[in-house]
Design a protein that fits this description.
The structure holds two protein chains of two kinds. Chain A has a single domain, classed as MetI-like (MetI-like fold), CATH 1.10.3720. Chain A starts with 8 loop residues before the first helix and ends with a helix. In chain A, α3 (61-72) packs across α4 (87-123) and α4 packs antiparallel against α6 (140-156). The longest helix of chain A is centred in the middle third of the chain and has 37 residues, at 87-123. Chain A has helices at residues 9-40, 46-55, 61-72, 87-123, 128-138, 140-156, 159-165, 175-184, 188-214. By secondary structure, chain A is mainly alpha-helical. Chain B has two domains: 23-104 and 233-309, 3-Layer(aba) Sandwich (D-Maltodextrin-Binding Protein, domain 2), CATH 3.40.190; 105-230, Periplasmic binding protein-like II (D-Maltodextrin-Binding Protein, domain 2), CATH 3.40.190. Chain B contains twelve helices and ten strands. Chain B is globular. Classes of the chains: A mainly alpha, B alpha/beta. The interface between A and B is large, with 38 and 39 residues.
Chain lengths: 218, 310
């Protein structure tokens, strides 16, 4: 590899963190309550809803990207927002990928602590709502795991980011789309280098979350 | 505590977002991958951005996808290399005009030993016929893009021109990769016959081939056939029609067409060399009527001579 890289890798890294971090937060704000609701309540069709959630683990990023593309293309129903090829569109597409993962893992973790604790708390005179909060608190490690898995999915995907972001230099280029570009250009070493940066970012985020967890800040 | 962390995160997100929300005018250019991957756009675009105080958002996808983006009003201007579909695009009222910018050529690449003997042929259709004959005999393999790109369209046109029906080709020797040019070259590089001799062929745009060749990724692929006017590879620009999509920046798109066909920029395109010293594009700005075969032939011939002398 002899030619210099024209774009700012630091900025690309920050944008990766921004897009995938936002998608994780958004996806968790929706996915955790959704998962808790599905896991803790008894209702008709619960089994089906769980199956759908788990099936969506396999939702292909490109399809998520295509869905957002059709929604926000100028020819689509929400085209007037003009958010296609912006980080916002990327965040939305990744959020769609994060929600089922976060919801699914949350379902599993609340189901595991559910029965006995909930009954005990209820028998001690707690309201149903208080009991639910207690269960989520008990399941907290699982919920945090769910969020971490969601972040992992978001930061690693490339299909949706390329489809609705467009890999525009200085605007929507993130680590994964930059890796794709460099691979296409035959700059394999540089692509691998970007991969290492991505892993270091993921490592940093996970260490930070564990640090928060250990200090019971999270 | 959690609320505080979320609040901090939101603030950080907003602050980080500021540099991405720039107030400058933007021009969305949907283009084929080779113009970006070859480094040409990085070389010429800063001049346009400076002169018009704007930012060009380059979306590099295949020519097919680029035109789809144009149809849906998601780009202001296209720079693509799929002449037949381009003319259709303008005819259908999606684009206002088609203007030629520059050209280079497609090359047929394969194992240096050239087991199908393409170097003995005199035109591209004969070359393709030989690949088909030898492929059917199990001697060689052809790797197709298979992705509806400009290069794939050219390849299909060549098979048709040779009187061959791609749909009858056996997957034993005709591999439809469904991938970009770089990946297809890599796949071709990997093809071996029973005696572990390289036997893959494919058709590639020069720019991508040279880049990959020079980085040492495809040591077993050489240009085995080139120079036929049929292998002409024309790049054109098309502004998206503002009557269909009033939001497109047609003024800037027209400025772009005028700029890229101006003498200075045409010269710049002609002078562009990649990191390894290859001249990859020959400027030929002009209205987008089809060039006569004779003129195409003249272009390619001059070009080949220039390359040999260069």
């Amino acid at each position: 590899m002899t030619d210099a890289i024209a774009y700012d890798v630091f900025q690309v890294t920050i944008l990766s963190l921004y897009v995938s971090g936002s998608a994780t937060i958004l996806g968790s704000l929706i996915g955790v309550p959704l998962g808790a609701a599905i896991g803790l309540r008894e209702f008709g069709g619960k089994g089906l809803l769980k199956t759908i959630t788990y099936t969506m683990y396999g939702f292909p990023p490109v399809i998520s990207g295509l869905f957002i593309y059709y929604m926000f293309s100028r020819a689509g129903p929400l085209g007037s927002f003009g958010i296609l090829f912006t980080p916002t569109a990327m965040i939305l597409a990744q959020t769609l990928l994060v929600i089922p993962l976060v919801a699914g893992v949350t379902i599993t973790s609340v189901t595991e602590v559910d029965r006995n604790i909930k009954n005990t708390v209820l028998s001690l005179g707690a309201s149903n709502r208080q009991a639910t909060f207690t269960v989520i608190k008990e399941a907290w490690v699982g919920v945090v795991t769910a969020v971490m898995i969601g972040f992992g999915r978001a930061i690693a995907e490339v299909g949706a980011a390329y489809m609705v972001g467009g890999n525009i230099e200085g605007k929507t280029r993130v680590l994964t789309t930059a890796i794709m570009l460099e691979t296409r250009m035959g700059h394999f070493e540089f692509a691998i280098g970007l991969g290492v940066v991505l892993l270091m970012v993921a490592c940093g985020v996970f260490l930070f979350m564990r640090w928060l967890q250990e200090r019971e800040l999270l | 505590m959690i609320a505080a962390i979320v609040a901090i995160a939101v603030v950080v997100m907003l602050v980080v977002a500021i540099p991405f929300v720039l107030p400058k005018q933007r021009l969305v250019l949907a283009t084929t991958t080779s113009t970006q991957d070859s480094g040409l756009l990085d070389f010429i675009l800063p001049d346009f951005e400076r002169k018009h105080n704007c930012i060009v958002d380059v979306i590099a996808v295949g020519s097919g996808q680029a035109m789809e983006l144009g149809k849906n009003g998601d780009a202001d201007v296209l720079m693509v290399h799929s002449p037949a579909s381009e003319k259709q695009f303008v005819q259908d009222g999606y684009g206002t005009s088609r203007t030629l910018v520059c050209y280079n050529q497609f090359v047929i690449v394969g194992a240096p030993s050239d087991p199908a003997g393409l170097s003995e042929t005199h035109n591209a259709t004969d070359a393709f016929t030989r690949i088909c004959e030898n492929g059917t005999l199990g001697n060689v393999v052809f790797v197709s893009r298979g992705d509806g790109s400009g290069t794939h369209t050219k390849e299909k046109a060549l098979w048709a021109k040779a009187g061959l029906d791609v749909s009858t080709f056996s997957s034993d020797w005709y591999i439809s990769a469904g991938q970009g040019m770089g990946a297809v070259l890599d796949i071709t590089e990997q093809q071996m016959d029973a005696d572990q001799q390289s036997n893959g062929y494919t058709i590639a745009d020069e720019a991508t081939y040279y880049t990959r060749k020079e980085t040492g990724i495809i040591p077993n692929l050489d240009i085995v056939f080139s120079g036929d006017p049929l292998l002409f590879n024309q790049y054109s620009v098309i502004p998206v029609d503002p009557e269909r999509w009033p939001h497109v920046n047609h003024t800037l798109a027209s400025d772009f067409v005028e700029w890229i066909t101006s003498e200075d920029i045409q010269e710049m395109i002609g002078n562009y060399t990649d990191a390894y010293g290859h001249k990859l594009f020959v400027p030929n700005a002009g209205p987008g009527v089809s060039l006569s075969m004779e003129r195409q032939a003249a272009y390619v011939k001059n070009d080949v001579v220039a390359r040999l002398e260069g």
